[in-house]
Amino acid sequence: MKQKINLNAVNQFPKGTVIYTEGEPLSSIALVIKGYAQIHHDGARYMMGPGSFLAVSDVLHGKHQSTYTALEDLVFYVFAIDHKDDIESILSINRDYNGFIIMSMNKVISELGKLYKDILKRGHGLYNFLTDTFKLYFKSASRLGYTARRPKWIEELTGFESYIIPDLDKINYYNEGAFVPIDALKSYYSHSNIITIYQLEDQIELINQLNEILKDLSDKLFTMSEYLINESDNCLFGLMAAYAIEVTNADGNSGELIDHMDSIIEEINRTEVFIKSRLGRKMAINRKRMEEAYHLLITGTKDKEMSVQTYLKYSMEDAERVIAELEVSYKQILDYSGIDPSMAKKLQNIMLDFINLKDRLSMDDNARKIRKQLTDEHYKLYKYVFLKAYNDKNVPRVIDMFLKYGYADEGLLDKEQLLSLYFLEEDNASDNIQVYNMKEWLKLIYEGKKEPSKNEFDLEYNEMLTSLKSKGKITDKQAKEYAADMVRKLDYEIQNMFRYNNRTTNGQISTFVPVLHKDMMYGQLDKSFVTPGVMIEEINKLLEIDYSVFDRETLYVNKQKNIEKEYIVEKILPDIILMPTIGINGVMWQEITGKKRNSPGRFLFPIFCEANLFLNIVKVCGRFRWELCRTIEGTAWNDIKVKSLTSEYSDYLQFYRKNRELSEERKEKLKLQIQKGRNNSREIFVIDYEAWIGYESRGAIKLNKPVREIMATYCPFTKKLRDRLIIQPIFEEAYARYNRNKLKKIRETEGRQRLLQKDNIELTKELMDTLIYYQET
Q1: Which end of the chain has fewer CB atoms at under 10 Å, N or C?
Q2: Which residue has the higher pLDDT, 529 or 161?
Q3: Separation between Cα atoms, residue 725 and residue 716, nearest integer Å
Q4: Contact criterion met (CB below 8 Å) for 359 and 439
Q5: What is the Cα 145 distance to its own chain's centre?
Q6: Among 89, 90, 38, 92, CA closest to 67
Q7: How far apart are CA 274 and CA 269, in angstroms?
Q8: b/e 603-615 (16+ beta carbons within 10 angstroms → b)
Q9: What is the pLDDT of residues 144-169, one digit of tens each?
Q10: What is the pLDDT, as a whole number, of residue 305?
Q11: What domains appear along the chain, each with residue ranges and CATH number?
Q12: Does residue 568 have a pLDDT over 80?
């Protein structure tokens, strides 16, 4: 609740009203006349009473560093203030204010100083508890032959210290000052504003330092509290509970472990009370799940379909609700689609046959036939379900799982996998890189915001219509109708790009089916799940090495500014589509969209990636670099007279036997690489690109001299990496041509921009950004 403040006047705020909010611009300070105010930020919570000035320590920042709230009905006087110099004007109004303002700052330092000592004590205590209890757990579980997990947080856990140590003598000094009678303070400080201001500036500096330290320590304590207890099964509570339940299920004696569980619960309670009462923050503790885990520890669980970790991750109530909701899933999907009952019955029978196969990956004729039938009919069903869901404001979770993840029936997954799939957490990462699941992508196609992708024969949708028309299969009228038919465009995308690449990204070509089943997966679904945030993070890792992979030089025209023809550099990021399958392959499907050379490419990945995602991205981007260069260069892509990535690398491959810079050993190695790349220039290049990114960027020598120079020229590392590597003569030599080309490009760009300015043509942001790009990258 927020109320308007009247400046230079007495204000009355009811209990719970916010006076000042952290982060908002500062335009006043206040003097409490009656009642108490609470001061709160992420690192502290304390209160101030009558005679106390509020927000004085925020003045130097120009915005409030804390939130100030009325703890009870509050009466206070507000002083307008724009600058720290205004404080002296306020002090001149009433000499008593000198004493009150110093007393206020003494109290703030006293409160923050006490909290600093207490948070250090609590933090050291929690750190010792986490490390000691984990050692006990790990040693005991390992010794007795049980699963002893080492979570990532145990490696990240460091001693509880702040990177800044405050002046403890000053804290003690001002803490003593908090107990000096107010009359003594008023009497002393009223003699001089200079003395007061000098003292005040020292106090404010210490308060701001303490605030910064406490925020840092508070974040560390909160992070450590999440190592103690959180929603995952990797927290200390989850580890110990899982171990104790395993011992109970094996009919072992878990009495001692129950004692340890009790200790953990006591530590959770202590930490929660401190964080809430002293820091004003709230720990996310699922008490119900804790009780259920404790109950399982006492009673045990014999359900072998679900691991102990699953029991700890989801409450019994949630698990039962989800299992009930997913009953007869495939029938739910068929009913939702609204397809013909006879077709629905046929699909149900095919699904039952697939569920009942003894070996779903078998290569015998019957298993092949069932997999083929299921695959052939799946994409027809997918279209019906998508169109129904498109117009449905409340899409059932089972339908969402079908469209996004390839889920079809509960009989194909175990209970643990069902729960994991149901509760997958999707993020809405905000970035220039666009990542879509299949449902989102098809929505864009259906709404006409994206054109359908090429088919496997490299034909765009409109090119396919032209081909059909030339063969006499459709008329001119039909071609025009089909070009504007969104359902046909949707069907084209599903039956071509989607159908073909669902299998390709999966990687199990001969045994693939487009529905999730437990025999096709090796790891855990939640661990292999690729969210937009995960994808963007991995792509950014590559951009920290190969910064220019998505940069293109494009033609720039701005008639309004009289710019007729210039070249600029644009970063054109690809559209990334996550296929609803589990897989190991990434696919570079299109380097551009349509015929425009400044349009985004299209990359495809499985939404559950069981291979190394970063290495997949590197491979896809290697193919992208090659294909984009071929497209831009046209027929000259392999003409050595026109210098480019593809022409130079193709020339290197064609004449490597005569290359004097290659030893016989290197030539033999290249021969094997050509065989590995199946004599395909692009795939041979990708092998080198992987080595360039994975090894050479770290200074490990893997490539030969000619290839290193080609890579340094056309796929340069970021400036930070170049500066680090260039001290090695081998890299200095490799980057010599790149550096010459770069200087030439800067001179050309500067020259063209000077000509524009000479003609009184204003340089646009695009033109200036391009020059900065050449100068700084």
Answers
A1: N
A2: 529
A3: 12
A4: no
A5: 37
A6: 38
A7: 9
A8: bbbbbbbbbebee
A9: 888 889 998 998 888 887 767 888 88
A10: 46
A11: 1-93 (2.60.120.10), 110-181+197-313 (no CATH), 336-423 (no CATH), 739-776 (no CATH)
A12: yes
